[in-house]
Amino acid sequence: MSTILEANQLVKKYGEFQAVKGVSFSMDEGEVFGLLGPNGAGKTTLISMLTGVLQPTSGEARIGGFDITREPLQVKRLIGLVPQDLALYPTLSARANLNFFGSIYGLRGASLAERVDDVLQIVALSDRQNDAVEKFSGGMKRRVNIAAGLVHQPRLLFLDEPTVGVDPQSRNHIFESVQKLNRERGTSIVYTSHYMEEVELLCNRVAIVDQGQIIALDTIKNLVAMLGGGVIHVGLRQFDSALLVKLSQQPAVQSAEILPAPMESKPDVDAEAPESAISLIKIEALHSQEALVNLIQFINDYDLAIASLEILEPNLESVFLHLTGKKLRE
Ligand SMILES: Nc1ncnc2c1ncn2[C@@H]1O[C@H](COP(=O)(O)OP(=O)(O)OP(=O)(O)O)[C@@H](O)[C@H]1O
Ligand SMILES: [Mg+2]
What is the pTM of this model? Predict the structure, then answer.
C-alpha cells in the first residue's frame, strides 16, 4: 500500500500561541482517516497547512510524494478541500457553482459537464442542480460544497466538519457520499469532526487531537481496546457490602461499587413490590467478557437474583475522556 500523506513535525504559531504543536502522521492511499477533537484543538489549522491555505511555521509534509511548501501546484492537483465554512455563490445555481470550481482546475466543455453530472450524483443533488444555492437548506448547501471539492477528482479529499448544522437527511447523504467515494473510487479521505459517532462509522484510523497535538492515533478497535474493558451495570436483590467486597475481588473486575438508587426505584406511595431491595452495582471490568462470566458464576454461587443487566462497551468518547479527563463536547 502506498503512502498518500506524510506529515512531519508540523507547527503553526499565531504570534506566541502554538495552534499546532508538532504534528506527525502518515496515511495510506485508500484510507478514511479521522481527525477527532474538540473546538479549538487545531484541526482546521492542521488541514489548512496540508492543503496550502496556511504556511507552516515549521515542519514539513508530503502528499503523493510532493512537498506541500516547495511543490504546491503538484499537491493542489491531487487534493480536494471542503472547508468548514461554505464557499459558494448564493445567487448561482448548484450547477453554475460547480462549473466555476471545475473551470478553476482547467476543466472545459464536455469533460467539465461530465464531471459536474458525476459529482451532483455523488451528493444526490442532480434533481436540484438548476436551483439557486441560496434557496437550499443548510445541509444541501454543504453537499454542494462537498461536490465543489470533488469536481477535479482528487486522490485525497479533506472534509472539515462536513456535517455541522446539517439536517439528518443531508447528514446521511454525506455519509453515503464519503463511503461511495472511498469504496468505489478509492479516494483517500481526511475526515474532521467532533462527533465521535461519525468517526466510528466512517474512519479506519483516528487521530485524537487536543490542544494542538495528536494524543492518540490508531484504529478505533485498538483505541477502544487500550481502555481494556468496559462497564457492567447489574441490578441484584439481597446484595450487601460484604458481597460487594467479594465481587470486587473477582478476576477481571477492576472495581465494583453500589450506585445510589435512581428516583423511580425509591419506594413511593404505590410501590407494592420491595423495589428498595434491589442494589444497582457498577462494575469496571478489565475485560468485559471475562468479568461477565465471573459475575454470572458469582451470582450463582451466592444464589442471588438478577433484576437488570447492562453492558456498556467503551467507545471513542470514553477513550477521549480517559486521555484528557474531559468530554469531547462540553
Ligand atoms: N488566525 C488566527 N489567529 C490567532 N489564533 C487562531 C487563528 N486561527 C485559529 N486560531 C486559534 O488556533 C486554535 C486552533 O484553531 P482551529 O480552528 O484549528 O481549531 P479546530 O480544531 O478546527 O476547532 P473547531 O472544532 O472549532 O473548528 C484555536 O485556539 C484558535 O483560536
Ligand atoms: Mg475547525
Answer: 0.81
| Confidence at residue 95, expressed as pLDDT on a 0 to 100 scale | 97
Dist CA 303 CA 191 (whole Å): 51
CATH of domain 228-264+274-313: 3.30.70.100
C-alpha cell at 80: 480536494
What rounded mean pLDDT belongs to the chain? 90
The whole-angstrom separation of Cα 221 and Cα 224 is: 5
Q: Class for domain 3-225, per CATH?
A: alpha beta
Give the number of the atom of ligand 1 that is nearest the alpha carbon of residue 194: 25
When pLDDT is averaged across residues 57-64 and rounded to a whole number, the result is 98
Ligand minimally distant from the alpha carbon of residue 159: 2
Instruction: Give the whole-angstrom CA distance, residue 253 versus residue 232.
Output: 10
Which three-class secondary structure state does DSSP give residue 256? Answer: strand
Cα of 173 from ligand 2 centre, angstroms: 21
Domain assignments of the chain as residue spans, ordered by start: 3-225, 228-264+274-313
- Atom 25 in ligand 1: residue holding the nearest Cα: 39
